[in-house]
């Protein structure tokens, strides 16, 4: 079967307490999945079961994933964590900036996948998160571009190594989330950015959630980069 339903499936979202991750968790729950959200401040709310975790602590990740599996299997693992800090220009970039950036978005994600392996169903899906800067060079985007490109390369290798489990990546463009500051501060800025995109607006977390659901439910998709960027790469 190429397409599958999420009804009754186990979905774990690392980074699902806010923004894109929360939208993915909510959409999966609405589709009938049993959803567990992992995050620093995760709490059980409505249909979403929360487990607190420090994604940069491998032992904490392992305990949280075992708790999320609850003696069963994880059908879909979604990872949306990332750094919220703005990297400095290359001339002032420090080793600590590299370690923090790669540590949060790449290393923690890989440790989460590794920690989930004992619980992943035979044909489970794993969906990572990169970003359009992986393939859109900018004057100040070196660190983010390097991290996102590494996530995409890692996913393609994992798609081969972990088969028949599927591994894909969603690559967002600019999305209206708290990463861009308080609503009052970001409204004008995001309107200007959106005006320069072919679709005439920036994305919403719900726009992105549809891509993650596609990665989870399309059984013939693996090693794919799903660009949801409003034409930002054009």
Describe what you observe in this structure.
Helix 1 crosses helix 6 (205-217) and helix 2 (58-69) packs parallel to helix 3. It contains 6 helices and 7 strands, in the order βαββαβαβαβααβ. The protein starts with 9 loop residues before the first strand and ends in a 6-residue tail after the last strand. It has a 7-stranded parallel beta sheet, with helices on both faces. With 234 residues, it is an alpha/beta fold. It has helices spanning 19-30, 58-69, 95-116, 142-161, 183-195, 205-217; strands at residues 10-14, 34-39, 48-52, 74-79, 120-129, 166-172, 225-228. The mean pLDDT is 94. Belongs to the short-chain dehydrogenases/reductases (SDR) family. It comes from Ralstonia mannitolilytica.
Topology diagram in text:
Elements: E1 10-14, H1 19-30, E2 34-39, E3 48-52, H2 58-69, E4 74-79, H3 95-116, E5 120-129, H4 142-161, E6 166-172, H5 183-195, H6 205-217, E7 225-228
Parallel strand pairs: 1-2, 1-4, 2-3, 4-5, 5-6, 6-7
Helix pairs in contact: 1-6, 2-3, 3-4
Summarize the structure.
The protein is 39% helix and 18% strand. It is α/β, with parallel strands linked by helices and 234 residues long.
């Amino acid at each position: 079967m190429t397409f599958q339903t999420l009804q009754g499936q186990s979905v774990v979202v690392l980074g699902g307490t806010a923004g894109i991750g929360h939208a993915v968790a909510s959409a999966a729950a609405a589709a009938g999945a049993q959803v567990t959200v992992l995050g620093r401040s995760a709490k059980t709310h409505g249909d979403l079961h929360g487990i607190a975790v420090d994604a940069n602590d491998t032992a904490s990740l392992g305990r949280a994933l075992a708790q999320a599996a609850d003696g069963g299997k994880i059908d879909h693992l979604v990872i949306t964590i990332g750094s919220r800090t703005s990297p400095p220009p290359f001339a002032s970039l420090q080793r600590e900036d590299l370690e923090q950036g790669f540590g949060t978005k790449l290393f923690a994600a890989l440790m989460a996948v590794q920690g989930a392996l004992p619980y992943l169903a035979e044909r489970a899906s794993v969906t990572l998160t990169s970003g359009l800067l992986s393939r859109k060079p900018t004057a100040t985007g070196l660190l983010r571009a390097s991290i996102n490109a590494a996530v995409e390369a890692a996913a393609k290798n994992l798609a081969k190594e972990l088969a028949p489990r599927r591994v894909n990546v969603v690559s967002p463009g600019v999305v209206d989330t708290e990463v861009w500051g308080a609503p009052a501060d970001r409204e004008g800025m995001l309107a200007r950015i959106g005006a320069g995109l072919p679709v005439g607006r920036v994305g919403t977390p719900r726009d992105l959630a549809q891509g993650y659901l596609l990665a989870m439910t399309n059984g013939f998709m693996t090693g794919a980069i799903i660009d949801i960027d409003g034409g930002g790469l054009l």
